[in-house]
Design goal:
By secondary structure, the chain is mainly beta. The chain is built from 1 helix and 17 strands. Strands 1, 3, 8, 9, 10, 12, 13 and 17 form an 8-stranded antiparallel β-sheet that branches. Strands 11-2-16-15-14 form a 5-stranded antiparallel β-sheet, with no helix packed on it. A hairpin with a 2-residue loop joins β9 and β10.
Length: about 220
């Protein structure tokens, strides 16, 4: 069965058309499980999940030179967050960002392989992503990688919930899920969204479903 999607780092991408369920304004969690094909490439950032532009948005990826996890959200101001652990090619990673605009909370958190690696407080951006399509490996920030699964939630998952999802590939927590792309749902002409919101991904520019081992922990 075809159960990963390959991106060449040039023009391959998967696009989920803008929808009400994909634009939470005050709380969001984004999760991507992926593996690099190469270490560096000719863009400063690469993005695995991108719904970013205009007056606001979300970005989850890494810095290409240092290979550290990186996320950014933009609303009233731009708020980046990044880790210090270098990620290596040919290793599968589970990268997550969780945000809540509640004042004073530990409200902007970055996780790698189920473990929180950095958090920020007092950001409090309300983010408008109206009209922006969600894209895996978007133009301008392409990623040379394979992607196994993607989840987006309309709430900030807790530390234990992020760890739960890391330990259970293809079987994530359901409460608040808005996008759920798994290895099981890579079928036919689209990457099918199993959240029930019909945010199916369309392959663009040569993004290619291909055969790989199904991750354990289901």
């Amino acid at each position: 069965m075809s159960n990963v999607v390959f991106f060449d780092g040039v023009d391959d991408r998967v696009v989920m058309v803008d929808s009400a369920s994909l634009k939470p304004l005050s709380a969001v969690t984004i999760i991507v499980r992926f593996k690099f094909w190469i270490g560096t490439q000719g863009v400063y950032f690469r993005s695995f999940y991108n719904k970013y532009g205009g007056g606001g948005g979300y970005f989850l990826g890494n810095k290409s030179v240092t290979m550290v996890p990186y996320s950014e959200l933009t609303g009233v101001s731009t708020s980046p967050i990044e880790g210090t652990r270098k990620m290596n090619p040919s290793t599968i990673y589970h990268l997550s960002v969780a945000y809540d605009a509640t004042a004073g909370a530990n409200n902007f958190r970055l996780y790698l392989d189920g473990q929180k690696i950095v958090e920020k407080t007092g950001i409090n951006n309300i983010i408008d992503t109206t009209g922006i399509d969600a894209t895996l490996s978007p133009a301008g920030y392409p990623a040379n990688c394979i992607i196994y699964e993607v989840q987006v939630y309309n709430r900030q998952l807790t530390d234990s919930e992020v760890l739960y999802n890391f330990m259970r590939p293809n079987n994530p927590i359901r409460r608040g899920i808005q996008l759920n792309l798994t290895q099981d749902s890579i079928q036919g002409a689209q990457w099918l969204d199993l959240s029930g919101n019909n945010n199916h991904g369309t392959y663009v520019g040569g993004a290619l479903p291909t055969v790989a081992n199904l991750l354990c922990g289901r």
